[in-house]
Design brief:
The structure holds 2 protein chains of 2 kinds. Chain A is 0% helix and 53% strand. The termini of chain A are far apart. By secondary structure, chain A is an all-beta fold. By secondary structure, chain B is an all-beta fold. Chain B is 0% helix and 52% strand. In chain B, strands 2, 4, 5, 6, 9, 10 and 11 form a 7-stranded mixed sheet that branches. In chain B, strand 5 (42-50) and strand 6 (53-57) form a beta hairpin. Chain B is globular. The N and C termini of chain B lie far apart (37 Å). The model of chain B has no long low-confidence stretch (mean pLDDT 94). The chains are: A mainly beta, B mainly beta.
Chain lengths: 114, 115
């Protein structure tokens, strides 16, 4: 069975500081990992994904994520946070055993203070 | 390219009624998936359609059904609505080539309120 854990309900960071949103996963096969962001009253917006290869994945709006197989983690990072980054962030996983549905974490609310 | 569109954006129904939600995928995308988002349960997978066939199904009761048309547009139906069906229903489309690496792109959702 697939599962995703986002251990922090909320992350607070000051504008201009680096941010990290944590995600750990559990799958049977090889993992394919995704990050999405949700703004109020909006759907999910794709940020980036890890399929294979380089463990550091770069995505939209200056976000990047680091895949760590030994720690089964896929943390989302950004070197310098913006107030406009304040939103709900979801990590999701799919493995290569044929089940195509994404399994999502519970979400982490990012609050960037000016 | 236009994104995924969902109609209507908001719906209010009463218990026992039925509802139909519509989703138009990104042009060229053949897979449509539906998810339910609630504060308590988070994001849960309902089903996926590809080439007018249900390819995957989540753990929801039979009151939840869907279909896909030849132009890849999809509808989701919920019969005999219950208060617990109040949620944001999200549709996502992908190319659907059968690869687990496919990215799903989400629509804005339909907010269903059951009174």
């Amino acid at each position: 069975a697939q599962s995703v854990a986002q251990p922090e309900d909320q992350v607070n960071v000051a504008e201009g500081n680096p941010l990290t949103v944590k995600c750990t996963y559990s799958v049977s096969g090889n993992p394919y990992l995704f990050w999405y962001v949700q703004y109020p009253n909006r759907g999910l917006q794709f940020l980036l994904k890890y399929i294979t290869g380089d463990n550091l994945v770069k995505g939209s709006y200056g976000f990047e994520a680091e895949f760590n197989k030994s720690q089964t983690s896929f943390h989302l990072k950004k070197p310098s946070a913006l107030v406009s980054d304040s939103a709900l962030y979801f990590c999701a996983v799919r493995d290569d055993t044929g089940r195509r549905a994404l399994t999502f974490g519970s979400g982490t609310r990012l609050q960037v203070q000016p | 390219k236009a994104g995924v569109t969902q109609t209507p954006r908001y719906l209010i129904k009463t218990r026992g009624q039925q509802v139909t939600l519509s989703c138009s995928p990104i042009s060229g995308h053949r897979s449509v998936s539906w998810y339910q988002q609630t504060p308590g349960q988070g994001l849960q997978f309902l089903f996926e359609y590809f080439s007018e066939t249900q390819r995957n199904k989540g753990n929801f009761p039979g009151r939840f059904s869907g279909r896909q048309f030849s132009n890849s547009r999809s509808e989701m139906n919920v019969s005999t609505l219950e208060l617990g069906d109040s949620a944001l229903y999200l549709c996502a489309s992908s190319t659907g080539g059968g690869f687990e690496t496919d990215t799903q792109y989400f629509g804005p959702g339909t907010r269903l309120t059951v009174l």
